[in-house]
Amino acid sequence: DADVTQTPRNRITKTGKRIMLECSQTKGHDRMYWYRQDPGLGLRLIYYSFDVKDINKGEISDGYSVSRQAQAKFSLSLESAIPNQTALYFCATGRRGLEGYTFGSGTRLTVV
Amino acid sequence: QQQVKQSPQSLIVQKGGISIINCAYENTAFDYFPWYQQFPGKGPALLIAIRPDVSEKKEGRFTISFNKSAKQFSLHIMDSQPGDSATYFCAAFSGYALNFGKGTSLLVTP
User: For A43, which of B9, B49, B100 is closest by C-beta distance?
Assistant: First the structure.
């Protein structure tokens, strides 16, 4: 099994719909991150969490919300999806003192 | 604004050649500089990383060169192979999260 699992792998949704992307990890890491990848723009940080009670906005948090249900689970929600949120979304985990992340395989989201 | 600037955007190298990707940063608080490799359909995977107290780190065919005074670092891939064809991202750690460059698409031709 993968260390960092993202579901779904692919999703097509309509404008205005609410959608949740889920991430779970078996690494035992305390830190979890959501990034968005767009062609030519690299990976941009949406939200990050250092533990269940610590949630922080990244550089592009507008239009997104997150929930850290447990140390191993971190969900990203789009309350009202819009077409420019079409992108590849990655969850990553890390821990204090170990700056390298472990990434999931990504969720490809298309908003039509 | 982009805190880590990466170039070139794309690179084509012949098998056996040297691939060089460059990155520059402004924030002197960055204290960890990894490179990630991403294949289509996969998440980025940590390739090699360096801290600013070291000027060079080598792992197999992959070398990071780090110039603290110029605030630049680069990835060198020696004896490039077609299997190295992927997207490469440089990044810098700010104390709470990694800041990524925009990526370089590398194609190694046979």
Answer: B100
| pLDDT digits (tens), chain B, 110 positions | 678 999 999 999 999 999 999 999 999 999 899 999 999 999 999 999 999 999 999 999 999 999 999 999 999 999 999 999 999 999 999 888 899 999 999 999 99
Task: Report long-range pairs for A38-45 (Cβ below 8 Å, ≥24 apart).
Answer: A38/A87, A38/A88, A40/B9, A40/B102, A40/B103, A41/B102, A42/B2, A42/B6, A42/B89, A42/B100, A42/B101, A42/B102, A42/B103, A43/A90, A43/B44, A43/B89, A43/B100, A44/B100, A45/B97, A45/B98, A45/B99
For residue B46, which residues of chain A lie inside 8 Å, CB to CB?
A: 100-102
Instruction: List the single residue in B with minimal CA-CA distance to A48.
Output: B97
Interchain CB distance below 8 Å, A100 and B6: no
